[in-house]
Write a structure and sequence with these properties.
The chain is an alpha/beta fold and 259 residues long. The protein is 47% helix and 14% strand. The protein is globular and about 55 Å long. The structure holds NADP nicotinamide-adenine-dinucleotide phosphate. NADP nicotinamide-adenine-dinucleotide phosphate binds next to helix 1, strand 2 and helix 6.
Length: 259
C-alpha cells in the first residue's frame, strides 16, 4: 500500500535509537523527508546516515534536547513547517514515589508532557493552514495499565493523554490528526534498563526477570521495533485521516481488557 506521504516532511524526536528510530525509518521508507533529533551527536549522526542509506530519503540530524526551549528552537529552525510530528523522549526513571521531589516531577513533565505540547503548539497552525497534519505521540502501555514503580511515567504521560484527547477533536476538521502510540515491551535499551531496575528491586537475576516478562506476554516475545515503526507510519498515512484522538496499544495482547 502506498501511504501517500512521498515528499512530506517529518520531525521525529528522540530518533537515534529504539522506537523513535523505527518510526523515522518507516516514514523514510515512504519517501518522507526527515529531521531526526537526539542529544548525543555521534549516535544520532550514525543513525541518520544509516536511515538515509536504507531509505534513500533526505535525513537531517539535529542534535537537541527536546526538553529545552533552545533544543526545540533548533528543531524548528531545521524544519519550521513539518507535515508530520513524532513526539518522543526518554522515559523517566523507575523508583519509589517517596524518593521523588519536585525537580524529579518537573523533569518527567518536561520530557513526557510539556515538550510534546510545546512542539504541537509550534507546528499545528501550519498543519491546519495546509490542511494536512499527522501527530503521533509515543507514550506507554503504562497510561492504560499503570506500573507502580514507573509512577513518574504514569503521571506525566497521563497528563499528555488528557490534553491530546481534547486537542484532537479541535483539529480533525482540518485533516490534522493526533494519536498516541502506547508501546508494550519492545526490545530496546530502555526496556533493558527497566528490566534491570525490576531485577534490582525484586533481588532476582535480570535473565530470570527478562524470561518471565517475555513468557508472560500472550505473544511469548518482546515487540520488534519495525512493528512499531510500521504502525506509526500507517497512522501518518493519507488513509488514516479518520483516526484521531486514539490511544493505540502495541503490546502483543498483554493488556487483558475486552476494549
Ligand atoms: P531508547 O531505546 O532508550 O531510545 C531513546 C531515544 O531517545 C534515544 O535516541 C535518545 O538519544 C533519545 N532521547 C532521550 N531523551 C531525549 C531528549 N530529552 N531529547 C532528545 N532525544 C532524547 O528508548 P525506547 O525504548 O525507544 O523508548 C522510547 C520511549 O518509549 C521512552 O519514553 C520510553 O519510556 C517509552 N516506552 C518504551 C517501552 C519499550 O518497551 N521500549 C515501553 C513503554 C514505553 P539521546 O540519549 O542521545 O538523546
Amino acid at each position: 500500500m502506498d501511504f501517500g506521504l512521498r515528499g512530506r516532511t517529518a520531525i521525529v524526536c528522540a530518533a537515534s535509537m529504539g522506537l523513535g528510530r523505527s518510526c523515522a525509518t518507516a516514514l523514510g521508507g515512504e519517501g518522507v523527508k526527515l529531521v531526526v533529533v537526539a542529544r548525543r551527536r555521534e549516535i544520532l549522526e550514525r543513525a541518520a546516515g544509516e536511515i538515509r542509506s536504507a531509505t534513500g530519503t533526505e535525513t537531517v540530524a539535529v542534535v537537541a534536547d527536546v526538553t529545552t526551549k533552545e533544543g526545540r528552537d533548533a528543531i524548528l529552525a531545521a524544519c519550521p513547517n513539518p507535515d508530520i510530528l513524532i513526539n518522543n523522549a526518554g522515559g523517566p526513571p523507575a523508583g519509589d514515589f517517596r524518593n521523588w521531589d519536585r525537580s524529579d516531577w518537573i523533569k518527567a513533565l518536561d520530557a513526557n508532557m510539556l515538550a510534546p505540547i510545546e512542539l504541537m503548539k509550534s507546528t499545528i497552525d501550519g498543519m491546519i493552514a495546509r490542511r494536512f497534519g499527522r501527530i503521533v505521540n509515543i507514550t506507554s502501555h503504562a497510561v492504560k495499565a499503570p506500573i507502580a514503580m514507573l509512577g513518574l511515567s504514569n503521571g506525566a504521560r497521563s497528563g499528555l493523554t488528557g490534553f491530546v484527547a481534547g486537542l484532537a477533536r479541535a483539529t480533525a476538521e482540518h485533516n490534522v490528526t493526533i494519536n498516541n502510540l502506547l508501546p508494550g515491551t519492545f526490545d530496546t535499551d530502555r526496556l533493558k534498563s527497566n528490566l534491570q531496575a525490576l531485577a534490582t528491586n525484586t533481588k532476582r537475576p535480570v535473565e530470570e526477570v527478562t524470561q518471565d516478562i517475555r513468557s508472560s506476554n500472550p505473544s511469548r516475545r518482546f515487540g520488534r521495533t519495525e512493528e512499531f515503526g510500521a504502525t506509526c507510519a500507517f497512522l501518518c498515512s493519507a488513509q488514516a485521516g479518520y483516526i484521531t484522538g486514539q490511544n493505540i496499544l502495541i503490546d502483543g495482547g498483554s493488556y487483558p481488557g475486552t476494549f
